[in-house]
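Sample intake sheet
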Amino acid sequence: MKHFYIATVLLMSAVLHAQEMKQDTLPYYELPAYSQEFTAGTVAARMVDALGFRFYWSSHNLTEKDLAYSPSENVRTGAETIDHILDLSYVIVNSTLKKANDKIDSSTLTYHEKRKQVLINLKTAADILRLSDDISQYKIIFGDTEIPFWNQINGPIADAIWHCGQLASFRRATGNPINSKVNHFRGTVKQ
């Protein structure tokens, strides 16, 4: 029965993705409504949704100046930070899809394509987690090594949130701050 639910979620994600593409919108402009019940799956999904919302706004409408910015030569640029978040988003979604992680070549993708893929990866992962009654099944897989879901929280999810903060700081430094109407606490945008 769980496999049916997961298949249904994936199908719904694909349909939503197709609709989003048609409307040229991306997930996480605002946070989705929160679940009425607290389970491991709904809490984990909300963490991924929160990451999606923060990434949406920290990476929204970046300029070439923002993408090239680095506070020092030993720090990733904005563009390199987005590349890293993209890699982390694949680790997150692959875990929920029960897929091993392989190196993905994103070097030919534009900033907009990378941003879109991060948001789709996070939305797919959150949708699967939201319906799960046992998130321990979503291990991080590197080759023959399986790492428990606990590491997903303190690893890729927390790391990606950290890097969203870097993007927000970088863009402030270049004179392109995040939209002041974004309310990170509520996950909404004032109209």
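Comment: The beta strands are 140-142, 145-147, 182-183, 188-189. The mean pLDDT is 91.
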